[in-house]
Design a protein that fits this description.
Blueprint (H helix, E strand, L loop, with lengths): L19 H12 L5 E5 L6 H4 L1 H4 L2 E6 L2 H13 L7 E5 L13 E5 L19 H9 L2 E10 L5 H11 L6 E2 L6 E5 L1
Parallel strand pairs: 1-2, 1-4, 2-3, 4-5
Antiparallel strand pairs: 5-7, 6-7
Helix pairs in contact: 5-6
The structure holds S-adenosylmethionine (SAM).
The site of S-adenosylmethionine has 20 residues, from helix 1 and strand 2.
Length: 185
């Protein structure tokens, strides 16, 4: 029987190699944004974005497809009961996102758009990268934001799809913040 082929290794915080999450929380602080509803693709085993949620009064829904990261989330919220009120994690292949089950967000991060499309998993996918971008951009509330990571190894996918999708959906680009490209609806 076929199985989903998912990323197995828990990802540690490595700002030199993958600074997007640290840059994102820095941007939130510099903008003075509080109380944001955030969809965050790729929690990492460090759960950096979720762990910052209580301080900013944010509500974060993180997505992981790595079993060890889902387990570390469970440990975190059991050991820190306050965190669970602000930070939820969904275990899912991002390409199996069920848009009907997701609410509106103030901020959507798609830092890893294009990174995990796999021919093996494609028969089970609900969305491809374009569908993911269109679908999650459609979940951004008026005046909300969508963010991309220019340092992603698959950034060419975002760079190609962004001009085809975001302008017609009412997004305009903001000045870059460090490694991040940001758009506002
Ligand atoms: C390279 S790590 C980056 C984590 C974090 N954003 C950072 O910058 O440190 C990639 C993340 O994407 C998640 N991921 C990998 N494949 C995925 C998939 N098919 N669907 C959803 N998330 C996936 C991994 O579980 C991991 O959390």
């Amino acid at each position: 029987m076929k199985k989903l082929d998912l990323w197995r290794d828990p990802w540690p915080l490595d700002e030199a190699q993958c600074p997007c999450d640290v840059h994102f929380t820095g941007w939130l602080r510099e903008q003075g944004l509080t109380g944001q509803r955030i969809f965050h693709f790729g929690t990492g085993d460090h759960h950096h974005v979720g762990l910052q949620a209580p301080a900013g009064g944010h509500s974060v829904l993180g997505i992981t497809a790595t079993e060890a990261e889902y387990s570390s989330y469970i440990r975190l919220v059991v050991e820190n009961p306050d965190l669970g009120r602000h930070y939820k994690v969904l275990f899912s292949d991002i390409y199996q996102t069920n848009l009907a089950l997701l609410p509106e967000f103030d901020i959507v991060t798609l830092f890893h758009l294009g990174e995990f499309w796999s021919a093996n998993n494609a028969p089970f996918a609900t969305l491809d990268d374009r569908g993911l971008l269109e679908g999650m951009a459609g979940k951004v509330a008026p005046s909300g934001y969508i963010a991309f990571f220019t340092g992603s190894f698959a950034y060419d996918v975002a760079d190609r799809l962004i001009p085809e999708v975001l302008p017609r959906m009412g997004f305009t680009e903001l000045p870059r913040y460090r490694s991040l490209r940001l758009f506002r609806r």
